[in-house]
Write a structure and sequence with these properties.
Elements (H helix, E strand, L loop, with lengths): L30 E9 L6 E2 L6 E4 L11 E6 L12 E4 L10 E8 L2 E12 L3 E6 L4 E6 L3 E6 L3 H5 L2
Parallel strand pairs: 1-4
Antiparallel strand pairs: 1-3, 2-7, 4-5, 6-7, 6-10, 7-8, 8-9
């Protein structure tokens, strides 16, 4: 089984540059790169790595998908949907729709950080998100947003 990955091609409508999120060529080992953790906590974000921290076996739904990656949930702001320590698989080519669960990559303190939230809407100047614990609506200025990627559902991960 081959999970085709070219992380240097990750893009979205919020991209600020064509700079690579991780600098690695296609992975031919049938594995998905883990880029770090995404904050599932009420306050704060977790730093994304420029290089894979580890690799996990490529699930069926990501076989042959370029740019796929995985993050670990850190925190409980999205419980019970996503629990602390749960893996999140991302296919950055899937469109983000209203009410999807997403990883939002933001520029903060000179680094690239990630949040796990529910996508509410995209307005002219902000991206509106939601978290569950404590319940809150979050507004992030578009100039702070690097990318937004939809988290795959269990059915998509299974390749069904």
């Amino acid at each position: 089984m081959i999970c085709l990955l070219q992380p240097n091609q990750i893009t979205s409508s919020f991209s600020k540059s064509s700079e690579s999120l991780i600098k690695q060529s296609t992975d031919q080992r049938g594995e998905t790169p883990v880029l770090g953790t995404a904050a599932g906590s009420p306050i704060g974000t977790d730093i994304l790595s420029n290089e894979p921290l580890e690799y996990v076996k490529c699930p069926p739904g990501l076989v042959g998908v370029r740019d796929a990656y995985m993050l670990w949930v850190n925190g409980s702001s999205m419980a019970p949907k996503f629990e602390n320590g749960e893996p999140l698989f991302i296919n950055p080519h899937r469109p983000v729709r209203q009410n999807d669960y997403v990883v939002v990559q933001v520029f903060e303190n000179g680094g690239l950080k990630a949040l796990v939230k529910r996508f509410i809407r995209d307005s002219e100047h902000t991206v509106e998100l939601e978290q569950f614990n404590p319940p809150a609506k979050i507004s992030i200025k578009k100039e702070q947003v690097h990318r937004i990627h939809r988290i795959l559902t269990a059915t998509e991960i299974a390749g069904i």
